[in-house]
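Annotated sample (chain length 148).
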Amino acid sequence: MAASRDLEYEVLCDDNGAFLRRYTVDDTGVLVPEDATLDGADYAAVGTVRRCEAPAAPPNPVLDGTLQRQAGAGTVTVPAGARSVTLVVLTGTAVVAIGGGAAVPVPAGTSLTWGVDRGGDAGESLQDAYAFTGVAGSDFLVSSTREV
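Output written by the structure step:
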């Protein structure tokens, strides 16, 4: 390759997929394109060369939300598969058990949230069920979201 004074790169696609096209301008001012694989090996384009299409963005999932208040004795259960779960203890104590694990008392004035960033095609969700139990004098809120 002749000495170049300018160098540009572009990722293009052909019938085989993506490849790298390197453009240089040689000392005489002639544009010299060279093709290479994405790993840098020499490549000969096959078929029609075009700009690669961006992959389609997955649609935003539809979410359903719930809010439950438990005043006094009783249990609020959020089944496995939620996208987010939030507990706010207003008075007394809420006892929290996650996925059948050990129950943990959570005192008044505490707010806890569990959640995942992505759902939809990424398939993230909370794998455990959450059980929030109150006794006489307890007052707490439980909210959750899940994909529908």
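Annotation: The chain has no helices and twelve strands.
Annotation: The mean pLDDT is 90.
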